[in-house]
């Protein structure tokens, strides 16, 4: 089943968008309105960074990323499967 959502507001003034294609999450986009830190539970096993403007990315515990952003930062992650 294909599905998507755009600009779901998350705690800390982050806007999250995602696309699901053929039953799997294909892409996640995060936009930081104010800057700050957040954690992301990866919805896929392996990923690539399609675009990164002003995000610092660190691996955290299993399956999580620690993201630190400047105001206006944009990050797009793609499923590599």
Description:
With 81 residues, the protein is mostly beta strands. The chain is built from no helices and 6 strands. It has strands at 3-10, 14-21, 24-32, 36-41, 47-59, 64-79. Strands 1, 2, 3, 4, 5 and 6 form a 6-stranded antiparallel sheet that branches. It is globular. The model has no long low-confidence stretch (mean pLDDT 94).
Number of strands: 6
Mean pLDDT: 94
- Measured on Cα atoms, how large is the radius of gyration? 12 Å
The assigned structural class equals mainly beta
Based on CA inertia axes, which overall geometry fits? globular
The succession of helices and strands, N to C, reads: EEEEEE
Low-pLDDT runs: none
Proportion in β-strands: over 45%
Distance between the termini: 17 Å
Bin the helical content: under 10%
Query: Main sheet?
Result: 6 strands, antiparallel
Count of helical regions: 0
Brief write-up:
The chain has strands at residues 3-10, 14-21, 24-32, 36-41, 47-59, 64-79. With 81 residues, the protein is an all-beta fold. Strand 5 (47-59) and strand 6 form a beta hairpin.
């Amino acid at each position: 089943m294909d599905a998507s959502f755009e600009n779901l507001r998350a705690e800390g003034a982050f806007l999250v968008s995602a696309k699901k294609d053929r039953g799997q999450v294909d892409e996640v986009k995060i936009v930081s309105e104010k800057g700050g830190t957040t954690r992301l539970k990866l919805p896929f096993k392996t990923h690539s960074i399609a675009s990164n403007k002003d995000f610092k990315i660190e691996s955290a515990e299993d399956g999580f990323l620690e993201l630190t952003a400047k105001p206006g930062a944009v990050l797009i992650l793609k499923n590599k499967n």
